[in-house]
Amino acid sequence: MSLVLDIGACRGAGSEDSGTVFCHCEERASGGRRGNLRVGIMKERQYYVYIMTNKANTVFYTGVTNDLSRRVHEHREKLLKGFTRRYNATKLVFFEVCNDIQAAIAREKQIKAGSRQDKIELIRAANGEWRDLGEGL
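Now predict its structure.
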C-alpha cells in the first residue's frame, strides 16, 4: 500500500520518498482546496508480464498489462488487431507479477530479447504441462 499526501504547497512538481509517498496538488472533486493536507491509502498497482501462445504452442506473444484478466479476454476474443489475433495466440501459458511498471517493462523486454528456447524453458519451469492459465480469470 502507498501513502498519498495531497499538499497544495508542492507546486505540482511532485515528490517521492522511497517510492511510497506522493505529493499531488490538484484540487479534489470533494471540495478539498490547495494547501489542505489530506492523507489516504492507495492500493499498490500490480503489473503482469505474460506470454500467450496458440493451441499448438508454436508462436509466442509477450506482453505487459495492469489487468491480466481483461487483457487475456481481449486476446481470446480477438478484440484488438495484431499478432495474437493473426496467429490465434489465445492461451495464457506464463505470467509474472511486478509492483513497478518500469520493472515490468524491463522484464518484458528481457523475455522478448531471449531466444525461442529461452521462452520455452521459462514456460516449462513455471507451467510444465503448458496448461491455459487464463481459464477462470
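Confidence is low (pLDDT under 50) at residues 1-38.
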